[in-house]
Structures are given as structure tokens and as C-alpha cells.
Write a structure and sequence with these properties.
The protein is an alpha+beta fold and about 180 residues long. The chain has 4 helices and 8 strands; from the N terminus they run αβαβββββββαα. The strands form 2 sheets. It has a 6-stranded antiparallel beta sheet. Strands 1-5 form a two-stranded antiparallel sheet. A hairpin with a 2-residue loop joins strand 6 and strand 7. About 25% of the residues are buried.
Length: about 180
């Protein structure tokens, strides 16, 4: 039996032809594939642009969140949140630049449909573009990890009034009085 040498992206595209109305997800973390694609884009299309931050590495981190790959991508020209289909997911093919509002633990975010040559469609939300020219490579790497943690964190809300946490108030309220 011949061993397959196709990458995961090639398998996804092989299974789902271009005329399909749905495409399959990634069984494994797509971060290395994102890095490889953005490295090619950097060399072929972006490095001559005036806002290109030449000392910034290309970094991607992804985690599974509700069956989808949620990630953060840093390139020499931007920092973005990305969402890709997870294992056993089928996503509908959408028109490029279509916008979708999604609720994450940190709050609501608006994503735009984009497409990469090898992995196909993804949802992206730009956080910083262009990058601050004073941002260092180490700070950029740390920013990716911190951003991903923040995306999955519950928001902290400060209320206008004080909260009475006394046990008497909590357990002693009568039915005709609010707790």
C-alpha cells in the first residue's frame, strides 16, 4: 500500500472540490500550516511594503474552542485573531470579505472571511495593522500568547452599585423581596 505524502491542507482540498458548498476542518492544529503560508506571503508579496516590520517573526498559536480552531497570528505587518474549522467540522463556503459577528468568552468580535492558498477559507479579525514599529520580536511573541489567553477569558465587569455578599442577605431574603 502506497503511503500518502499529501499535507493536511491538500487532503482537505482534495476531498472538497472548489465547486463544493462546504469544506472540511483540520484534524490537527493548523498553526504550523498558517506560519508556512504567511512566510511565503511575506517573501513573495509583503516585504517590499513600507510598513513591513522586518525583525518581527511570523508566529501562530491555535487552540480548540467549541470544536473550532481559534488562533492568533502575528506577521511583520499585522496581528489577527483567526478561526478555522476543527476536526469533523464542515463549514459553508462563504463569499470573500463577508462579515460575521461571533461571541467569544471575552466578548463579541466581528470577523471577515478570508482565504489562504493552501488552507482555504478562514475567519479573521484584525487587531493591529500595521504593527507598532517599536514592538520587539520577543514582545510580539508574548503578545500572541497573551491575546489567545485573553480571547478565552471571561470579561470582568465593574458594576455601578455595590453587591451585598452577606449571608443573611443572600439566604434571608423573603420571596416578596428581591435578593
Amino acid at each position: 500500500m502506497a503511503q500518502s505524502h499529501l499535507s493536511e491542507a491538500e487532503r482537505v482540498l482534495e476531498i472538497v472540490p472548489e465547486t463544493a458548498q462546504e469544506f472540511g476542518g483540520f484534524a490537527t492544529n493548523p498553526a504550523p500550516l498558517l506560519v508556512a503560508q504567511y512566510e511565503r506571503i511575506a517573501k513573495q508579496e509583503m516585504q517590499a511594503l513600507p510598513f513591513y516590520h522586518a525583525t518581527m517573526p511570523i508566529v501562530a498559536e491555535c487552540v480548540l474552542f467549541e470544536g473550532q480552531w481559534l488562533g492568533c497570528v502575528l506577521t511583520p505587518w499585522m496581528l489577527s485573531v483567526v478561526l478555522l474549522p476543527g476536526p469533523d467540522q464542515l463549514w459553508p463556503v462563504r463569499s470573500s470579505s463577508e462579515r460575521l459577528a461571533l461571541q467569544l468568552p471575552c466578548g463579541n468580535m466581528t470577523f471577515m472571511v478570508g482565504e489562504l492558498p493552501e488552507s482555504g477559507q478562514l475567519l479573521a479579525c484584525s487587531l493591529m495593522s500595521p504593527l507598532d514599529p517599536h514592538l520587539g520580536a520577543g514582545e510580539g511573541r508574548a503578545l500572541v500568547s497573551s491575546t489567545l489567553k485573553m480571547l478565552l477569558s471571561l470579561p470582568v465587569q465593574q458594576g455601578a452599585g455595590s453587591v451585598d455578599l452577606g449571608r443573611r442577605r443572600l439566604f434571608g431574603a423573603r420571596r416578596d423581596q428581591p435578593a
